[in-house]
Amino acid sequence: MSSALQQVFAHPVSLKDVQTHFCPGCQHGTIHRLVAEAMDHFGVQEKTIGVASVGCSVFLYGYFDIDVVEAPHGRAPAVATGVKRACPDKFVFTYQGDGDLAAIGTSEIIHAANRGEGMTVIFVNNTTYGMTGGQMAPTTLPSQKTSTSPYGRNVANDGYPIRMAELLAQLEGVTYSARVAVNTPKNVVQAGRVIKQAFETQIQGRGFSFVEVLSACPTNWGMDPLKANARIGEEMIPYFPLATFKDTSAA
Amino acid sequence: MPKVVIDELRCKGCGLCTTACPYGLIRMSDKLNRQGFLPAVISDEDQEKCVSCAMCARICPDVAITIFKKVNIA
């Protein structure tokens, strides 16, 4: 009896084999991989139209091997509504950060969700505006220091962080809403599972699906990648609990 | 043949894989790669101890790690 080596982990087909511009330890890359793996799993690469937002995530058209439309800041769900209604047989997803989706794009996401548009939204929450220099976002944690809250977020002035996954789960139009993280291998595997479930919701034509992914921004948090990764478990998950808040197919 | 193949040019040296490996087999190199990062490396003897669980590859944000598993063939 002899032995051979079998490949058990490979680069997803839907993800281009290129170097990304992301900083070391930025988990956009991990989330890109999970989304690409879900596309490979369902074999929808050829009929997928992605909608990119504004922020570090904007360059996904260079990283995914799919067709992509670039939306104005915060308007990805509105653009995706048009794409999905014009081409209902296509697989449509948006990929947005928290500065994009939870601030300037709040109106678009809430109304797209409320209408129950048949799209999937991947929402990357890193509690800051990554690309523009780490300003305070609606999801910035209480007393977190950012470039526009140098003494820490003061909840008396700035309010509390928005929990988008819970908020959207209350809308009738939403079929699937969940929050995951990518800070440990276990959470990464769970995140992959949840993203696949959200994609399945759209493939089966059951309406709007939303996945919030907690992610690190080492550069703007002023931390090294390992400390930033640890912060997700220590500070973010206690405020943003990981759970599936709505799954009407489970009922 | 190695079980863990780390693309040295793709690695940005974040070190997340060193925390993910349950056996602590991956360490950071002391030689800079072409991008100016200290990439993750695994020694030949640690390759033997690897169980191909792929935890390092799953947490790698740059998809720089490919995993092979030893299988018996009759």
Helix/strand layout:
The complex is a heterodimer of chains A (251) and B (74).
Chain A lengths: L1 E8 L18 H15 L5 E5 L7 H4 L3 E4 L5 H11 L4 E7 H7 L1 H10 L4 E6 L2 E2 L5 E2 L18 H4 L5 H6 L4 E8 L3 H19 L4 E7 L3 H4 L3 H15 L3 E5 L4
Parallel strand pairs in A: 2-3, 2-4, 4-5, 5-9, 8-9
Antiparallel strand pairs in A: 6-7, 8-10
Chain B lengths: L3 E3 L9 H5 L6 E2 L11 E2 L2 H6 L5 H5 L5 E9 L1
Antiparallel strand pairs in B: 1-4, 2-3
Overall pLDDT score of chain B: 93
Placed side by side, the strands forming the largest sheet of chain A appear as 3-2-4-5-9-8-10
Superfamily (CATH H level) name of chain A: Thiamin diphosphate (ThDP)-binding fold, Pyr/PP domains
Taking all Cα atoms into account, the compactness measure Rg of chain A is: 18 Å
Explain the overall architecture.
The complex is a heterodimer of chains A (251) and B (74). Helix content of chain A is 38%, strand content 22%. Chain A is α/β, with parallel strands linked by helices and 251 residues long. Chain A has one domain: 3-Layer(aba) Sandwich (Rossmann fold), CATH 3.40.50. In chain A, the strands form two sheets. In chain A, strands 3-2-4-5-9-8-10 form a seven-stranded mixed sheet, with helices on both faces. Chain A has a two-stranded antiparallel sheet with strand order 6-7. In chain A, strand 8, helix 8 and strand 9 form a beta-alpha-beta unit. The longest helix of chain A has 19 residues, at 185-203. Chain B is an alpha+beta fold. Chain B has one domain: Alpha-Beta Plaits (2-Layer Sandwich), CATH 3.30.70. Helix content of chain B is 22%, strand content 22%. Chain B has a two-stranded antiparallel ribbon with strand order 1-4. The longest helix of chain B is centred in the middle third of the chain and has 6 residues, at 44-49. Chain B is elongated. Classes of the chains: A alpha/beta (251), B alpha+beta (74).
